[in-house]
């Protein structure tokens, strides 16, 4: 019965998911004619809509910590990474923070709306095989976010978890991000449960999956701060299970 229900709700979810990407791809291209900020609002709408789409399959969110920081403006969110679903989770929750992402180059082509946003939405598209290019792109992303007072999201594990575990955080990207935006507070973030949504690449989506998103207290920036120590704090936040 459970598997049958998963499939029964996954089919309309997948159809709605595909249609949403197509519609917002067109809307995004039109918005680009008027500048970056109109495009950002359209992409914010895309990400909020994608969260609603997965409610068809009973996906629900438990979000904690939003009261600890402003609902607009620039921050550096440092999070574990469980699935591609994490991107609309950030974008759909933090609409007025206009979060930007560090993404591998392969995602920047061939996917309606998503690839368009990565290419044209002031994100950092990196080549994992070119360390120098990746560091430069992340640093530039950070500088742009601080200049525009918008937020950046980095997943220091470097890849998605397949089982919900948290892998070691890598320091290089974090250092580039912090140096590029020395004034933006850092917010440790933990996502749990999103890996289940894409565990079978949406075929099917386990019905009723609950996704937890926890935001920690902002870490203020200091001239003598230690990136490794801050990264360790963010890793601990993501690794610990709430009581």
Q: What spatial form do the alpha-carbon principal axes imply?
A: globular
CATH class: Alpha Beta
- In terms of DSSP E residues, the strand content is 5-15%
Our Rg estimate from Cα atoms comes to 17 Å
> What is the domain total for the residues?
1
Mean pLDDT: 94
CATH topology-level fold name: Glycerol-3-phosphate (1)-acyltransferase
Q: List how many beta strands DSSP finds.
A: 7
Give, in order, the helices and strands. Answer: HHEEHEHEHEHEHEH
CATH architecture: 3-Layer(aba) Sandwich
Characterise this structure:
There is one protein chain. The protein has helices at 2-32, 36-53, 86-93, 114-120, 131-148, 171-180, 194-197, 227-239; strands at 60-64, 76-79, 100-104, 124-126, 152-154, 186-192, 210-215. With 243 residues, it is α/β, with parallel strands linked by helices. It has one domain: 3-Layer(aba) Sandwich (Glycerol-3-phosphate (1)-acyltransferase). Strands 1-7-6-2-5-3-4 form a seven-stranded mixed β-sheet, sandwiched between helices. The two termini are 32 Å apart.
Structural key phrases:
single chain, 243 residues, alpha/beta, Glycerol-3-phosphate (1)-acyltransferase, 7-stranded mixed β-sheet, 14% strand
